[in-house]
Amino acid sequence: MLAAFENANVGKCYQTAESLVLLVKQCGSTKTVQQVHTQMVVNSIHNHHNHLLSKAIQVKNFTYASLIFSHMNPHPNDYAFNIMIRALTTTWHNYPLALTLFYRMKSLSVTPDNFTFPFFFLSCANLAEVSHARVAHSLLFKLGLHSDPHSAHSLITTYARCGRPACARKVFDEIPHRDLVSWNSMIAGYAKAGCAREAVEVFGEMGRRDGFEPDEMSLVSVLGACGELGDLELGRWVEGFVVERGMALNSFVGSALISMYAKCGDLGSARRIFDSMATRDVITWNAVISGYAQNGMADEAISLFHAMKDDSVKANKITLTAVLSACATIGALDLGKQIDEHASQRGFQHDIFVATALIDMYAKCGSLESAQRVFKEMPQKNEASWNAMISALASHGKAKEALSLFQRMSDEGGGARPNDITFVGLLSACVHAGLVAEGHRLFDMMSTLFRLVPKIEHYSCMVDLLARAGHLYEAWDLIEKMPEKPDKVTLGALLGACRRNKNVDIGERVMRMILEVDPSNSGNYIISSKIYANLNMWEDSARMRLLMRQKGITKTPGCSWIEIENHLHEFHAGDGLCLDSIDISNIIFLLYEELKREGYVPKVVE
């Protein structure tokens, strides 16, 4: 029938409302819908706009659907509002307009129902608009729809995504008859809200209280929580449950298992799951690449990325972000540049996560100008973007520029507000430039102006700043005021400063503490020995060396890389140079010549 319609004069063949409505339902493109619409207008058939709107949404034509919706007289009914809000939420992801239509619906005295609220709440969730969700939540009670399970499930998701897990739990507890979707909504809500322990607890309650057996959704959510908690035991139980029930190891479950094992540091199991999967899509590849990158195994992450390309799986934004992180770790600038070009070709260069990863990669690979270019070209910036650029400037010794960018972030950052990571970057800038007074000002500003509680990273920066400036007693006082025990990095910085300043008093206090915190680090013993040696305290110096030998600790060799044609060649101090490659030999020769021309004289130390 539709073929005849498309090729003949429909005005002669189909002039009744019923036949035209039937024809609308058979349309598969905007063109055919519009042809039927034309015949409705010609034949003065005006009471079937809902069918036209439904079909325009089905063919995913936003402009045409909006046109039909806006011309409904006297105004759209509840069905039209509901399908339009649903389409805006799930098809076009135009969440602000979905909210606008909800309020317009109310202003026209069209009553929302149980088909309206679930999609309205999902739009609120995606916009993190908790105030609008609360208004609609109140309306649910007024309309007697608070027991509707679909609305309740969407509301749980909304409150969780908006950082209100307690409100989500209250909604969950008030559901009179909970089903598996109810439990899954609460488990996923807790997991997404960062309440991993609560997610695991609800997972356990699900079987005990209501006798529900977990499905894929339950397992994927709880695996995410296991990864955050490092709960390897429960994660392994979930894998056993999947095997025991004969559940398919699909992309959904497989990638969740890979991510869980990787976050728990068990890369062997993560790789075992990956290798056992019959089909691997981009989600699965992303899980294993990210897992290796996050565990510091950048070489393996990059190898997997090349294997992914060989397997004809197209990388997406998440892939590029993970690989750029690996490139930053080992200084693989050439590959990083290739990914930058690839991102531009795919239209990903302005994605906020890819661009932020590019800034970090370029900065850590020594190309500050490229990092600044990417930052400047970003149409939108979030906290992570500003922080990456501030940290980039700080690590390159550009303290003045980092502080200036912080001021810009405060003045014109839009929704981006300085957070604890921002201040780590700023304090690091002060460390590199020796700006003690500015460091004090920023440290105080955290709590007084931004209501941020300094963490161990901020104390570490301040200790390092004071230590480098020779204010060793003030640095030690700050260590004693820290809310938790200092880490080995903080103590190591102060110990190194004690050596440079020949301060054995503070040095001995730090030694006692650092040998408890980091007893296997050879550098701590060597520096301690040299502090005594600088003051001609030879017996104490020898004692530190003897203690190191008695504990079987050997000096960790230095390591460096040379990248040639996307391949990284690693060298360890003391290995000797067995150079098979002429290219590597030539590069090392050129480096020697450059050093000589610059007048560098090697300083040989023990």
TrEMBL record:
<feature type="repeat" description="PPR">
    <location>
        <begin position="351"/>
        <end position="381"/>
    </location>
</feature>
<feature type="repeat" description="PPR">
    <location>
        <begin position="179"/>
        <end position="214"/>
    </location>
</feature>
<keyword id="KW-0677">Repeat</keyword>
<dbReference type="InterPro" id="IPR002885">
    <property type="entry name" value="PPR_rpt"/>
</dbReference>
<dbReference type="GO" id="GO:0004519">
    <property type="term" value="F:endonuclease activity"/>
</dbReference>
<protein>
    <submittedName>
        <fullName>Structure-specific endonuclease subunit SLX1</fullName>
    </submittedName>
</protein>
<dbReference type="Pfam" id="PF13041">
    <property type="entry name" value="PPR_2"/>
</dbReference>
<feature type="repeat" description="PPR">
    <location>
        <begin position="281"/>
        <end position="315"/>
    </location>
</feature>
<dbReference type="Pfam" id="PF20431">
    <property type="entry name" value="E_motif"/>
</dbReference>
<keyword id="KW-0540">Nuclease</keyword>
<dbReference type="InterPro" id="IPR046960">
    <property type="entry name" value="PPR_At4g14850-like_plant"/>
</dbReference>
<dbReference type="GO" id="GO:0009451">
    <property type="term" value="P:RNA modification"/>
</dbReference>
<keyword id="KW-0255">Endonuclease</keyword>
<dbReference type="InterPro" id="IPR046848">
    <property type="entry name" value="E_motif"/>
</dbReference>
<dbReference type="Pfam" id="PF13812">
    <property type="entry name" value="PPR_3"/>
</dbReference>
<dbReference type="GO" id="GO:0003723">
    <property type="term" value="F:RNA binding"/>
</dbReference>
<feature type="repeat" description="PPR">
    <location>
        <begin position="382"/>
        <end position="416"/>
    </location>
</feature>
<keyword id="KW-0378">Hydrolase</keyword>
<dbReference type="Pfam" id="PF01535">
    <property type="entry name" value="PPR"/>
</dbReference>
<dbReference type="InterPro" id="IPR011990">
    <property type="entry name" value="TPR-like_helical_dom_sf"/>
</dbReference>
